[in-house]
Amino acid sequence: MKKRKRRGKPNGRAPVGEGILLYHDMAVYENFERCTQRMFQVIKRAQEQFPGKPRHLLLRVQGHLNDEGGFDRDAWEVIKHFVGGFLMPYLTSASTPIAGLENRKGQRNDLPDLLNVIYPGDDDSFWYDVDQLPVRPREISSDVRKTPPTKEAIADYLGMSDDACCLVCWHRPAERAHVVPSSLGGSMDVRNFALLCAEHHREAPDIADAEGFWAWVDYAEMRDRGSKWEGASDKVRELAARLGERIGRVDRSEADFMEAVKFELIHLYGWEEADFTRFSWELYEEYHRVLDAATGKHFGVENKVATHAWAMDVALYRVEKDPETRLRRRAKVLLFDTLKEDSDRGPQTVRIRDALAERGNDSGRPQEA
């Protein structure tokens, strides 16, 4: 397999010397929540397996650019506030696309058991507006172009250069896939496109919420990660298997439509058994309102699992009017690859986004180190 190039390369020298090198590539489909949880888990495992050893973090960012060419809100908060603020006491050094950082006070080894993201109570901009069902693109002001960008331009934005492949399975050839469909008001801005193989393009949701689309790509990438090794040599496949990777494609062709929707509601949206017992005429009506107002049909596919699962989840939010209950459901950060969380001390809350209420003052532009 070819090595994929990336945008957002770390600034400064790579960490050297004795210690543990920790690497994370913030993929275009990762948001703040999923990215920070994964980085937190990696550092926690390093602390448990190699106690006391210096930890050096190497962070890269794929895509996540704003209108001015700087980093978007999620990437900026990850780099500046999460890595540069919260994580640094538990690291010896960090290399990010903005700056190289050193911990001159000495690395701590008491990382909390769990990371809980707490949101400002008066800011709903983190979430899709389930009541109004608007188009929510990732880009704030879109490109005025009338035609879609080339696959090469999309690959360049994603840092793949001449190695364009599917974001989910890495197969080629890749197709241009709208994040928000043009039929729903999606733009021709390069940030409104993904690269997917024909199979995953047919499966991807046709919805008005860009972050919902990217969350599905994240989920599908983990669900189908075994297919990435199909083109690798036997030696590489054997090594990946020894490291615990699933090898080979999982055949889902025989899956019943409703069972597939239920699987996605559980693993992508965090539904529990109690949620499936809440089916009512009101929920059914809201489900169809969401389908009519905020979804589309691509490739003429009538029953697209990803689209219907998203619509059902949004419908449940519309039925559930209580703000606290809505927030509690949204606060579930589901990772398909989440490690089992078992702690003797119980969760220790780490307030991240509470401290970011004034984040609008940040320009989001990369700055000199």
In short:
The protein is an alpha/beta fold and 369 residues long. It has helices at residues 32-49, 73-87, 151-157, 198-203, 210-223, 234-242, 257-267, 273-276, 281-294, 305-319, 323-330; strands spanning 20-26, 55-61, 93-95, 100-102, 175-178, 193-196.
Q: How would you sum up this structure, described in words?
A:
With 369 residues, the protein is α/β, with parallel strands linked by helices. It folds into 2 domains: 20-119 and 343-361, no CATH class; 151-330, no CATH class. 33% of the residues lie in helices and 8% in strands. The protein contains 11 helices and 6 strands. The protein has helices at 32-49, 73-87, 151-157, 198-203, 210-223, 234-242, 257-267, 273-276, 281-294, 305-319, 323-330, and strands at 20-26, 55-61, 93-95, 100-102, 175-178, 193-196. The protein has a 4-stranded mixed β-sheet with strand order 1-2-3-4, covered by helices on one side. Strands 5-6 form a two-stranded antiparallel sheet. Helix 9 crosses helix 10 (305-319). The chain is globular and about 60 Å long.
